[in-house]
């Protein structure tokens, strides 16, 4: 029987969707029928386990699953002994402390002796201890935002993405304790055979992530400005330059880092580039 690597992902929600999407982008086809707790890939030695996010660290620790896609914040809270093979760049959020909008706030010291509702007690204790602050924690599994409104707590600690949930509950974010994103975590009990499969999957994931960071660009350049334009487009090694049928012009192919995309495009136009075409890169293998 062929060995399969076992991966845990969140069974519902945005992290579930983005986890399945990156596996799909890696060419892994999963037959995941509705309400299934386990599914196998049709074209890769992989089994998917759909689990509650908070339970995944223990499954990794026990070796029930070999790898998992989960929020880094969950690992920090419940699995700081588990290693991360790759940060994945999606499901970004922060774990923050928030208080009612009308509350005067000066510093972390203001939490001394206060009641904080949270699903992240270890994270809160570790953060406050850096400042010598002790608070009274109320551990809530679920929506903590209502706790100050019903008199259960003076403040909350929770994950924040856009901040809209805090706004709706008349709360303001006052301390960002950590920033988080989805990560690929690895069980300390993974065996050699499954490590080989993990290395193959990691190769695919890294190619997909690299492609997401860049854009492919194709342009026409006047030969007298070619050297200047090439300096703006380092590419993976160097740009590809081909002569056009029209004398005095060349076609230049390269990649642009998304972070500097518009600045580079503006500079290319100023340098005389024409007919600039830009497209997404599905995968990039270096």
Average pLDDT level: 92
- Computed over alpha carbons, the radius of gyration is 24 Å
Going across the biggest sheet, name each strand in turn. Answer: 2-3-1-4-11-5
Unreliable stretches (pLDDT < 50, length at least 5) are none
Largest sheet: 6 strands, mixed
What attributes characterize this protein structure?
single chain; 286 residues; alpha/beta; 6-stranded mixed beta sheet; flat
Describe the structure.
This protein is of the alpha/beta class and 286 residues long. Helix content is 27%, strand content 32%. The protein contains eight helices and 15 strands. It has helices at residues 14-25, 56-62, 72-78, 121-129, 164-168, 192-212, 226-231, 261-270; strands at residues 5-10, 38-40, 46-51, 67-71, 83-87, 93-100, 115-118, 136-139, 155-160, 171-180, 182-186, 214-222, 240-243, 249-257, 274-280. The strands form three sheets. A six-stranded mixed β-sheet has the order 2-3-1-4-11-5, sandwiched between helices. It has a five-stranded mixed β-sheet with strand order 8-7-9-6-10. A four-stranded antiparallel β-sheet has the order 13-14-12-15. It starts with a strand and ends in a 6-residue tail after the last strand.
């Amino acid at each position: 029987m062929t060995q399969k690597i076992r991966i845990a992902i969140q069974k519902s929600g945005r992290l579930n969707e983005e986890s399945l999407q990156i596996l799909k982008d890696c060419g892994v086809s999963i037959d995941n029928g509705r309400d299934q707790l386990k599914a196998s890939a049709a074209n890769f030695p992989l089994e998917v386990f759909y689990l509650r996010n908070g339970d995944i660290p223990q499954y990794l620790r026990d070796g029930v699953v070999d790898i998992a896609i989960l929020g880094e914040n969950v690992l920090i809270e419940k699995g700081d002994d588990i290693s991360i093979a790759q940060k994945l760049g999606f499901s970004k959020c922060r774990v923050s402390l928030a208080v009612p909008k009308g509350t005067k706030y000066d510093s972390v010291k203001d939490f001394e002796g206060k009641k904080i509702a949270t699903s992240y007690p270890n994270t809160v204790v570790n953060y406050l201890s850096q400042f010598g602050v002790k608070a009274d924690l109320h551990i809530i599994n679920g929506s903590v935002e209502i706790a100050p409104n019903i008199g259960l707590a003076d403040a909350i600690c929770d994950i924040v993405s856009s901040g809209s949930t805090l706004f709706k509950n008349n709360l303001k974010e006052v301390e960002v304790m950590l920033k988080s994103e989805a990560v690929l975590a690895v069980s300390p009990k993974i065996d050699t055979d499954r490590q080989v499969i993990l290395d193959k999957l990691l190769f695919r994931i890294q190619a997909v992530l690299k492609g997401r960071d860049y854009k492919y660009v194709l342009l026409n350049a006047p030969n007298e400005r070619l050297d200047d334009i090439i300096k703006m487009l380092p590419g993976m090694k160097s740009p590809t330059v081909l002569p056009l049928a029209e004398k005095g012009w060349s076609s230049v192919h390269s990649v642009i880092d998304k972070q500097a995309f518009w600045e580079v495009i503006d500079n290319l136009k100023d340098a005389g580039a024409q007919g600039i075409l830009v497209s997404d890169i599905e995968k990039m293998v270096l």
